[in-house]
Amino acid sequence: MMRSTNVTALRRYFSGIAEFTFQTQIGVADPPLIDYISDLLTRFVRCETLYRVRNLTGRPVREVAQMMMEAEERVGDARREVHRHIGDFTLFWTGVYPEAVNRLAADSEQDCLVDYRAEGKRAYWIASTIETDEKESASNVVLERLSRQFELCAYGLREVRRQWEHHDDDPPKPFLIN
Length: 178
Known about the structure:
single chain; mainly alpha; globular
């Protein structure tokens, strides 16, 4: 029960910052897109979610190039989910921690040639073209928007990070609701 409460509080925290950042600072009033980004931040708090794609032996795949190969080996919903994860993974790193992208690529024999932005856009686009019956999955419309607006979303995530880092230094302020 405690874990569920923590996830809910964290989800509300990310939702509030993402809504404020995207709507008031960037001027993007797109609730489904902002909800997706809030969910992405909440999911990626857990490190195992970052590396949830597994190879045939069950080992986590840590490189985008390997994830791309895994996606091509799958069909249907499984292929869609791996492409979606590639989009999420690349958006997270290029948006929240852009300073780490070059280091991630440099530490990898294969990712040193991968353009995270281009592959993220491509992965979201491919995922958006694969129909799914799963109710819990992201809509194809949102995935297509993430593909088309990848750079804007990455910028928004950088601003979200700036907000949470800025607010970590501030003392709590009173919050009033009329």
